[in-house]
Amino acid sequence: MHDQPLHTPNGEEKQILSVAGIDLPMRPMEIGGRTYMVPRYIFRNKRDRTWRVAPKAGDVVLPAESFSDGTYLGLPGKALTQAIEFLTGSLRAHQRDASSADHHSPNR
What CA–CA distance (Å, rounded) separates 6 from 3? Predict the structure, then answer.
C-alpha cells in the first residue's frame, strides 16, 4: 500500500492510495472543522456518525462493514483509520485468494 500524488488535468494534485493493484483516489471530507482524506469505496453517514465500506470495489465484492465514531472514543479519524485498514485488508485478502486460485488452477 502506498500513497502517490496524481496530477489532474487542471494541475492540482490528488492523492491516490494503491492497494492490491487497485488505485483508490482520495477525496477531502470535512468533519467538525477537520479535513480527512477518504479513499474511494468508503463513505460517511453523517446522521449515524459512521464510515461505511462499500460492498463492492471495482470487480471485488467486499464484506459490508461500518465503523462508528462512538466505538473509537467519538473520534471520526480513528474510525476512518479502521475503515481504511478493513478495506485494504479485504482487498489484499481478495488478491491472495485470486492468486492462490490461479496458482492451483488445472489450466496452468
Answer: 10
Task: Please tell me the pTM assigned to this model.
Answer: 0.76
Predicted confidence band at 53 (pLDDT cuts at 50, 70, 90)? very high
CA-nearest of 98, 49, 39 to 72 is 49
Length in residues, the chain: 108
Note the helical H segments in 1-108: 76-103
Q: How far apart are CA 25 and CA 18, in angstroms?
A: 8
Residue 15 scores a pLDDT above 80: yes
pLDDT at 7: 41
Strands laid side by side in the 22-31 sheet: 2-7, 13-19, 22-31, 34-39
| DSSP symbol at 37 | E
Angle at 72 between CA 26 and CA 44, to 5 degrees: 35
What are the cell numbers at 11? 494541475
